[in-house]
């Protein structure tokens, strides 16, 4: 579906919400509360019906009149994506690979994480995406930390450093990445970079969160610079 083919912007938002809720059945009220929180129930129900009709026409433009819809299924008062529909999502591919112990699988998974979940969709009211967004963001950081550790253990220090730097480009106050960097520099005997990394960590935490490095980070720095 090309951007110009969405008949209503809310139809696209409804589709994204149903994708986020895939595998679950949700009521019309749950959908309208998330997509039209500012409207009264009657007005929200009216707009939901219009968005749903537009969505069905967009997904199945050649469906004969009166024939059952395939992608969006209704069961009594519940709505959801058809379990029989084959839906491939980069978010699912990312998450399935992010818990691997394989360096290559982790690299492939992390390469799929270009932006936080649905942030590129410019949805005016997207609180409904926030929980999934934060969860996947945590999965990314955990996977990237594990990848950096595995690369370091395998002597691939430059790749491990690049992985940590990629983490810090997303969140310069992500303290575990600094600890991982210090361990990598310790492995190659680069004491000045250990000190520099600790100082960068201290500055970032102060500027971003107004906190000092954790005891864990302090202890690691002391141990590596004795």
> Radius of gyration, rounded?
23 Å
The biggest sheet, with number of strands, parallel, antiparallel or mixed sense and barrel status, is: 3 strands, antiparallel
Beta content: under 5%
Helix content: 55-70%
Mean pLDDT: 94
How many beta-strand elements? 3
- As laid out across the biggest beta sheet, the strand order is 1-3-2
The SSE string, one letter per element, is: HEHHEEHHHHHHH
Topology:
Blueprint: H1 9-20, E1 26-27, H2 28-35, H3 41-59, E2 72-75, E3 78-81, H4 90-98, H5 103-111, H6 127-153, H7 157-170, H8 175-187, H9 191-209, H10 215-224
Antiparallel strand pairs: 1-3, 2-3
Helix pairs in contact: 1-3, 2-3, 4-5, 5-6, 6-7, 6-8, 7-8, 8-9, 8-10
Quick structural summary:
With 226 residues, the chain is mainly α. 62% of the residues lie in helices and 4% in strands.
Characterise the protein shown here.
With 226 residues, the chain is mostly helical. It has helices spanning 9-20, 28-35, 41-59, 90-98, 103-111, 127-153, 157-170, 175-187, 191-209, 215-224; strands spanning 26-27, 72-75, 78-81. Helix 5 runs antiparallel to helix 6 (127-153), helix 6 (127-153) runs antiparallel to helix 7 (157-170) and helix 8 runs antiparallel to helix 9. The chain is elongated. The model has no long low-confidence stretch (mean pLDDT 94).
